[in-house]
## 1
Amino acid sequence: TLGLAMAAGGAKKAEKKKAAAETIPETTTETTKAPTETSKAPESFEFQAEVSRVMDIIINSLYSDKDVFLRELVSNAADACDKKRFLALTESRENSDELQVRIKCDKEGKRLIIEDTGIGMSKEEMINNLGRIAQSGTKAFSEMVKAKNDKSLSPEDQSNLIGQFGVGFYSGFLVADRMTVYSKGLNDPDGKTHRWESEAGSSYTITEVDGDEAIADGSGTRLELSLREDAEDYLEDLKIKSLVQRYSEFVSFPIKVWTSKTSYEQVPDDEAEPPAEGEPAKMKTVPMTSQEYETQNKMQPIWMRAPSKVTAEQYEEFYRTTFKAYDKPLTLSHFSLEGQVEFRALLYVPGQLPFELGSNMFDEATGNMRLYVKRVFINDQFTELCPRWLKFVKGVVDSEDLPLNVGREILQKSSVLRVVSRRIVKKCLDMFGDLKDKGGDDWNTFQQQFGKYLKVGVVEDNDNRKDIGEFVCFQSTADATKLTTIGQYIERMKEGQTCVYFVSGEGRAQCEMSPSLEKVKKNGYEVMFCTEPLDELCMMELKDFEDKEIVDLSKDNVKGIDDNEDKKKEKEAAQTDFEDTLKFLVQSIGNKKISKAEVSTSLSDSPAVLAQAEYGMSPQMQKYMKARAVAMGDEMDQGGGVGQASVLQINPSHPILTRLKAQVDLGSPGDDAKRTAQLLYNVAALRGGYEIEDGKQFATLVTELMATQ
């Protein structure tokens, strides 16, 4: 590819220099120094290319998958038909031929034959189009069409030519050691058929032919590929059918494959005894094999139509056929973009999570977005078309403006790609908004099946985080049977409430028993439950929503609760009163488990709660990070049973703490007081969702407590 680029670039640069030199005004000669003996005039040279080496690059470097040769050659044939159709419309040329592409597998001759009834080529066009590498006859024809600027044609009648690079024809050498082309041009006044033949070297031959080798009527082209030994699987019609259906299913001209069909018929049984008089002859079933051309591309590219001309049934049938799905899509979006970037797209939200995403929600082998160029399938593995959090959305995108490499296998990053990607994301958000407004079963299904993907979007998509945040849902204390969005939570906020509150835990049951809920119990505030690590990551990335800060109740200082002036004064007084008790708790439990102990005036029923500092990790996140480290083979010092040193917050009005304070104030707290401190910590850890690493010690403490009763 580098050799091609240099050769083409050198030729263009030389032409530009020559043109520029011819257009320099005469007045510039006054300021131009004449060449001297020490300053010679520069000489211009054109880059040269070794043809055999360039062919080798095209055959062995441009394409990574041999299957694409059929896509390229069928596209060339479709282009030939499209040119002939366009000329018939614009120049009123008679066209009695049925425009079609036919493919036949010749197993005996080990040939693959592709023929079309398109515009064909004369001898001169063969030399120009097939004999000059990177010379695209299709691109030249497209430029001629644009120059005509015939606005009288409908969009359906406009030319839909695919080729542009002028190297797709040579992809045939991926599977063939010799290519033979028979063609008769529509523009050839002599109406002669010529044969072009090459073995991928530096030369080719052209011969005028007649008789059986000639193109019979009208114009057209027949391409014969003499297949290599390692490519003989392309002689199977099933293989050819699958490739046509994959790459060229929506080409506008019929693509027919020579197929053997077996049917069963009833015929008289010659071996049976003659029937009695008046009885019918005995019959037997025999297989009958016939061969005929069978059309492979019967589906219509409905994304090319106006949305008003497509019915709901057609959308559903297209979804199930194209994506091999059995569910009914929840919603869809059919749109186009015109301007500097032009493309058409049809997007679907499935009715259920695709099976292949069940075990891996970001399975790279699963192609959800199919890219087409002028109805020809290119690839479904372009992750750049839409972010991975939209992996569940299925759709097709058809554009000729996207920056593909010559082999049409790599989507290069560019401003065009960013425009397309942004529009796809916006349309997806619009679809989600429609589902949300509609509500009901479809919205519930959407959340159950794809809610995780939205939360990943909040975490990963910086540009659309707030917009995606409108659709993420969580469980809450408001209703045990329904999920709620943050926006709905804000609508239900109490008067005077300034923050959105949440707690995390392994499931709803653990969240409901968290002592942290008591911090807002007196106020009657609703609390959202983060039952998975992804939920908490989502909250951490959002930070705020509609100017309401999102606050974790498991922190040691809860905004909107602990920053009340009356609360602060009450806490300071209790802190002074329990100063010795707090020191005793730190000494008894150990500073590896708790960083400090303090009084909380927000607790009502629980004796104590474990909290984290402002930037500390919740127990859920600690477990997640530990599991992740184990999976990656990293050693992780968890610093005790709870992962990080927590803050022990005590309830000064609870009987256990008043009794413990009395023992400490006497000046000689014994083993009973130390056991109380350990139990206080372990119970708070258990209710808060932390891991109790030393289960044996905890069991011993409980057993000893029971024995004293």
Note: The longest strand covers residues 255-268.
## 2
Amino acid sequence: TRGGARGGTGTGTGTFGTGTRRARARARARTTTTTRSDATTGASGKVEANPPMARGKAPMTTVVKTTTRTPPKPLAAVRGVCETPTRGNAQALGATRVRGDKDDSVNFAVFSSSATAVSLVLWTPEALAKGEITAEIELDDRVNKTGSVWHVALPKCAENVLYGYRVDGPYEPEKGHRFDRSKVLLDPYAKATVSRPRYGELGKKADGSEDCWPQYAGAVPKKNKKDDREDFDWQGVTSPNRPMSDLVVYEAHVRGMTADLKTKAQPGTYAALVETLPYLKTLGVNAIELMPCHEFNELEYHSVNPATGEFRRNFWGYSTVNFFSPMTRYAEAGDKDCGRAAAQEFKYMVREAHRAGIEVIMDVVFNHTAEGNEEGLTLSFRGLDNRVYYMVAPEGQFYNYSGCGNTMNCNHAVVREFIVECLRYWVLEYHIDGFRFDLASILTRASSEWDRANIFGEPTAETPMLEEVAIGTPLQDPPLIDAISNDPVLAGTKLIAEAWDAGGLYQVGSFPHFGVWSEWNGKFRDDVRNFIRGVDGYAGLFAERLCGSPELYADGRTPAASINFVTAHDGFTLRDCVTYNEKNNIANGEENRDGEEHNQSWNCGLTCEDDGESCDPEICSLRDRQMRNFMVALFVAQGVPMLYMGDEYGHTKCGNNNTYCHDNWMNWVNWDEANDPLAGEGLARFVRQLTTLRKDNSAFRLPAFPTAENIQWHGHTPGVPLWEEDSRFVAFTLQDTTESPKFYVAFNAHHEPAFVKLPTPPEGQRWKLVLDTALETPFDFVSGDDVAEADLYTAEAMILPSLRRNAYVCVDRSAVIFQAVPIE
């Protein structure tokens, strides 16, 4: 399973390697040989610096060995593609239309510090489909190279041109080099990509055979418009730009949300997702957190699943091929217009979400790529500069803090610039509102840096190294996190960290936040699950989570730093959390070996034999009640609530807690149930009423952590909380300001009912029942706006006698909320 690490400190030793990087105060003069080159004469050679003096003799003469090189080859125009290529420049990596250029040139620039030769490979779409290269332009390092950037410009470059790079250099894995000139590489900065046009369909090789990994190619930018207008009409629609504290986040998957949806657009696409926006708005969601939408290959795991007979898919998408381009096969347009139509469709989705008042947060995976470990593929980064883009041990193996074979070298200067530039691009070009960083703790680890002696010089007695920092060590002020946090374009963007990784580093509450980061609060998930299912010793921790986890985030931040969730894409759904004690991952075809073992779940029965669907009415009733209890905890807690798609109606994956490879009902929203307000015995309606309660009452989204001035704790009697080890009862009254409503909230996780004495309401007011999870729909949320006036009167009349005495019975394993209202 991915993203489930819950312990360890991450000392810097990965799956492979124990190398160290030296941190020094300043660069030192070199004492080794240096290299110089002369671009005019073509002469180059090694010059011995500071040669030793021989006793009693004249200084030694410096000897320079020269090698004659042939003059640069003249470059030629490519018919139908471009006119005669020119030198280009290193100003911007990627393919860029040169603004103001009369020739409407496209400048190509790519980084590779150790390459010995680079060629720009060009295709037309028709040639790519046939597996034929249209043209290949060899770059000369004397003309087309500045520093470590190779570049060339194509005047009058056509719009339907696709490109990649062939890069040569040493293949020395023990030194971190894995160059392979037989591969044509995808530009990491490509803004649109082309490979296969349709989701799940295999590609074709030149001989007609099927191919899961056909050649990837980037698309050149379109020609600049004379009036400098954008190529997409945003129609004046801008982001809702809500305060973080006001968000209700919905974790969703583009295909999972729409594959089973009866839509005008093609299911499984960005366009289809637009048709779900009215549903999300009705649900009370105002921010959608999209699982990976960067270009990835859903056929990465293509093979027959022995357990189901279906083909495996990389359904979740946590295996990025290209970070600058949207997933082409999530677009109804497919790869039309050289992949640029997919970008237009993605913008359409964002625009319509903003029009509906819903912000868009992207799940980004900068911790690893699809290229895998030493046995993996060469698609892009590996073939350009393996030991720069990846954390590589001194023996050449890959560090594996991601659990997926490789780890991006995030705090290397080149990689850091790449990531920041990518985030800026999505904000500027696509109007993205925020990012959730998968396995974000990797972004805090010290990078591996090769050849540091030639960069900084060797330590001497006068300039000793100050410290040894092991590769992968968690840094207190990681350069990448610093750069993201202080970037002017990213200011105000929602930044959310999944503050752990697969290498054992767990930073929930300690992630270096620079005052602007929020975190997936894994401790909220764990502690809330344990308290609600009735585990002793969690009453105090449960209260901390309800307060927004101040012991984690009261370090200059607010409760909005805590993204509260009970379930997410990996792990049990909410329904399965109350239906299974043990995972049931047989359908994955791995003999149930995969997935998280510690689920903190309870099937509401007596033994594991009660796992799964039940005909016992008592078990079924308790499961429905427990799901409501979890939802109440999620929405009354300070912080930002996050729902996982389908949980609002009780979606089940039949106990599978690691559905990464399934493109079927397990990962698809069931729209028959989603559109039924009584689905899950009325759970969908209950959730809608909860989101409204939170939106309408600032007490549940305080601007600061609650204090004794606005929260008071109670037990079975007012003012006497129960914090004992065996306590399973937590109650409190909460109020934002003296002018705002006051609420009483109680959770009874015990297997026996609790007779509760309510605190005295404010003068001139009485307690009115808002919800009781033990009651049947619609009376479980009796104050809902869909309850008929006559039914409401009857329900209130039944409990009025006990409320006059400020008393109430909390049924076993239930939650209740009362609101103080004026006496009529």
Note: The two ends are 56 Å apart (CA to CA).
